Amino acid sequence: MNLLNDAYWMRLALKEANTALQDDEVPIGAVIVCNNKIIAKGYNQTERLKDVTAHAEMIAITAAANYLGAKFLEDCTLYVTVEPCPMCAAALRWARISKVIYGAHDPKAGYTLFGPKLFHPKTEIQHGVLEHECGTLMTDFFRGKRGK
Question: Which of 2, 59, 120, 133 could join 93 in a cystine, given CB atoms 3.0 to 4.6 angstroms apart?
Answer without folding.
Answer: 120
